[in-house]
């Protein structure tokens, strides 16, 4: 079984890095996977990829050691299983508001007897190895997103759901839900208080915490705060900021 | 007729900026077109787009004032006309080695009586306006690339070809052809001597010169040297450099 | 914020026109958007587009003043948010049978505190403008379809749901549900009685009513009956009727 | 109305053959459809096709007498209707665990008054004929999958659901759910006992039974056991086994 | 061997009808193929399809009796053979200016000993039948376009080229080349004189003549003038005219 | 630099195996690449892939040790360079009839000073390594096809062309050109005499010979005859034969 590099980093006591793919291009994905991040997330929710794009993007990562995550479109059985069959080693599920939501996610993300995931990981076996059946439920990382007031309120019960590895914080939506602007790199003290609280409670529960960041500074702050998996930047974001800066510099 | 923003810049005596698209994604193209560059080039030669990708990418730019260029796959009638029918306002043609090559390019890039371009710009009319027939031959910018020893040798005769607006320097291939490493942001004095010579001879011939740059510093240097159109950076390049730097910074 | 042309027409007391896209082609979409209709609907239910097609089609409209609507595949959070993130300024939701269905639609179509739409409208901001966060909930038009006996029965309670702009009548399904043939351009008096009743009750509730029409005659009848948004024809329908007529005429 | 070849076989008292498409290619689908199988299933669950791929694959079958089945991604209204609108003459629905699940499937697979399928089978009419409205509910074959312990337990009540033509056995998932390895061509006596029991109870209830097989030997065994529709092999499976054998033979 | 319906019409002494596909959608192609035209042309020159689109569009026609034509991107071996391998029963080649151009076209369109077409018509055999090898060179219709002054001048020698079935007139380019506006439905007497002259000389040479028309009236005029194959209208054209008229009528 | 497995086999004095991809699916390509063949050819001539499909298929092979070959659509600079930029480690060029044809192929397949290939192998570097510039011209295998009477006649001069690694025999076209049926697994003694002659002359010239085979028996015969690279079977071929045999066996 191909190991999950994020778990390996965790076993070494280190935070793992993550890169975010909003675009729909297997070419962009392949360049991203060669950057050296521990993991790459295909964003099937707010990104622009369909299932067939997602598959091509994950295929394009297979020659590297960056492992594929998928941010699911929604907490739906069909989507959960398509992402896993494509070879995902990590699932980030948006808008989990309760332990029931989290249990629903696990139900379709794990094979019997732990869940009811349906068998058919044809391509995933090519990526992972022939012992997929016996290893995947321990290999895949499943992270419900905490990004609503409801989810934040239910954090402790969500963290207790069997099969969950931890939680992933969506700071934009969390800020929005708490009444602030939806800015990834927020400076709002109340949002940061919530972020830190989530990290602390996840650590206290012996679970992992992960987060989307709007800047490297934020990523470093999150890492130092105890986050185990940190999305540092992404394809569109890094292109837009670098290319915009280049134009300004050129036009000076 | 929608004006050609690059020509407008030229009429103001300014250098125009260009952004390079190697990827195949209309989403990336749309984000790029909102950055404010004067023009965006879809690279159909070393980029990853097919004709249908090129079309979607050009469509995605139409709501902005960045005008679409295409770097042709090759100096072939079918490709030249597909790029123009898609709405291109600029053509960059690789590996032009002689005045005959340049005349071949013009032959299929201009309508009778100047050339033999075939009629059918259905989509281009949507983009440009109903006076396309009468305006396009004066609107479109056609730039043969000078990127081989042969092309450099024939520079003056290429610059004299009727219908050519100027030349576009490919520094990587030019360096390679002159016996150096194919590095866009080259430091080779002999390559720079050739680049400067091309700029001077194009200016002396009252033609435009354009160039692909490997860094903003190079872009500024080229602009100050008299280049009229400067490719400052591109999608994959800016993403890779910014995302690589972010990872290094995160892992410190 | 780019204005919603349909709302502008409504503010002028006029009915807005709508064109329907069943095909999956961004090229067809761009030609359609240049026809002058106030709005263009990508049909993600009975049409042939996937999410990536939908995105390309909406991108291709952006240079025109025709605003994009999406007829959702189904009343599902993932689909609702993909359509809005793509830039939709109008949502038409099939098979809404109750006020609960309508509330579910609104829940995922509006940002907190009105709903629970998740943040990430990267491309929509390119289309709309940087004040998207503050304007979109007032800009987007949300129309549950009344096209079943159940939905018709619950019309008044559906019209009362907060956030709903009005209702969209699907005459084929409504006819089918009432026991008649599913013909868009139906002549059934009982179906027309229902259609007129829906228009009247929507107007009485100070809400908008919209409708899919099978002919221009029907479209005019609907407009004169008080409908505020009228789908006049669509891509496949207009091509099939015009091209079929041309063949008959040719073969005479 | 184009007849359903599987029903024709059944009327002749014969078992019908089925071929499975996991890939996403209309080219592969067209070659498959020319092999002579009675039916071809596009696997939208564990296969690699999106809705647009599914449509192209079904279009590519239309010139043959092999009729299209779709194994649904999930028991969801949007997916059920997309498959039927694309022209499917058979639906195989994964993970049906109860009579309620089966009724949900029928609800969206049949037109009023039997169900609530929404009207819009534009392409399906091209394939089937103009009497689609009156014939399709009797033509299409709807088969919930029995592939979980829960579904197996509820088999009799599922078989009683009005509109269901029978059941389709997923031996891999059934084996997994019963505590065995998920192998299509299983040799487990307890799994085979369940398979045979399902066949017997379906036959006793005057319903059809169908099954996915991992080998021709298994397919023949199933047919002789009373299965009415037998998936004999598929695209990826047959390619991998034949091409693997060829390499072994070549390297001897 | 599946017969070529256009040849059948010719054998009956009738003009054959043709429909033009500029879009890139297999869905549009399938609807078009069900309209009843004798033949459908995929326009790979000024249309928007790549080779993979062309293939899907041709696949979608296979269940109908409308036979597929391809207007080639250019007179290139690779393109000629891709169109034929996809199953084309007719080739329309743009911008043929001389007998040499026509011979080049035939060289790659016919198998040895008549030409040098390369073997590999895998999909074409599915469409045509197993006797493809022996029948296709007599079945396929090859039509160089006469649409330039040069081609018109060389008409007689082009008509004499062995393997050519006749010529196809492109009136827009012909008008442009003769110094007039490129309008398909031209009223220019000098263009019509040329058109009629081409028809007469083709008929005199016992060859076929075909033409693209900008209106049904023009199509009828061409038919009555002796044209054997008449492109009556197309997908984008018929949609734009019908949908534009509908909007005008609605807005009255 | 990632080594070329075919060259490695050759250095061990062994024949290398090759698998042929006619389909257009990256999924099929990934399954194929896991079969263990030394090399996989994407057929861009008679197969169904466009450039973007080719790229996705080659990306999907990168995690395996099977190296990518491309059979070019035609001997055209644009196509040659697209295949190499995509990462091809082998080129098979159809219909090479003379030493001039072979020199044209080499001219665009090798960097200066050996040829005029243009720089821009962005993705190829990801696959191969950062020393691509210095290694690729020695790594890539370039094989003109001998498949016409003309090419066979010119065999010796073709074998002498600098940069050519050997020749690839297309037995179907060769048979056709010699006046026989185009059958890959031909039994014609005169065709086999030519095949053996080509093998002998290539070996005598210290060049490699390669061949497409229609059966494993033919593949073994070719290997034993001295062929260094043998295409044993392909995706569509192996699927069709295995799936057809399964149906026959099932229906017994």
What is the radius of gyration of chain A computed over CA atoms, rounded to a whole number of angstroms? 17 Å
Structural domain count of chain A: 1
Q: Segments of chain A where pLDDT lies below 50 for 5+ residues?
A: none
Oligomer: homohexamer
Structural class of chain A: alpha/beta
How many helices of chain A does DSSP assign? Answer: 13
Mean pLDDT of chain A: 97
Distance between the termini of chain A: 53 Å
**Largest interface, Cβ cutoff 8 Å:** A-B, 37 and 37 residues
Tally of extended strands of chain A?
A: 8
What overall geometry of chain A do the principal axes of the alpha carbons give? globular
CATH superfamily of chain A: Phosphoenolpyruvate-binding domains
> At the third CATH level, what is the topology name of chain A?
TIM Barrel
Q: Give me the side-by-side strand order of the main sheet of chain A.
A: 1-2-3-4-5-6-7-8
Looking at the overall shape, the CATH architecture of chain A is: Alpha-Beta Barrel
Helix content of chain A: 40-55%
């Amino acid at each position: 079984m191909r190991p999950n590099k994020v778990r390996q980093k965790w076993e070494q006591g280190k935070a793992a890095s993550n890169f975010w793919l909003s675009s729909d291009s297997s070419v962009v994905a392949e360049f991203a996977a060669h950057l050296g991040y521990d993991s790459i997330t295909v964003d099937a929710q707010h990104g622009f990829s369909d299932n067939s794009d997602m598959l091509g993007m994950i295929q394009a990562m297979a020659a590297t050691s960056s492992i594929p995550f998928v941010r699911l479109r929604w907490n739906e059985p069909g989507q959960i299983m398509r992402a896993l069959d494509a070879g995902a080693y990590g699932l980030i599920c948006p808008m989990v508001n309760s332990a029931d939501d989290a249990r629903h996610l696990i139900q379709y993300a794990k094979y019997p007897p732990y869940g009811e995931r349906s068998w058919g990981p044809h391509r995933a076996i090519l990526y992972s190895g022939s012992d997929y059946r016996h290893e995947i439920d321990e290999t895949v990382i499943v992270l419900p997103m905490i990004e609503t007031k409801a989810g934040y309120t239910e954090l402790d019960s969500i963290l207790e759901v069997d099969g969950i590895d931890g939680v992933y914080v969506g700071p934009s939506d969390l800020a929005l839900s708490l009444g602030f602007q939806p800015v990834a790199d927020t400076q709002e003290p109340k949002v940061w208080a919530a972020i830190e609280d989530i990290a602390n409670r996840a650590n206290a529960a012996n679970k992992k915490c992960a987060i989307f960041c709007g800047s490297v500074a934020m990523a470093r702050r999150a890492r130092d705060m105890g986050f185990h998996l940190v999305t540092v930047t992404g394809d569109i974001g890094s292109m837009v900021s670098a290319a915009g800066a280049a134009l300004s510099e050129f036009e000076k």
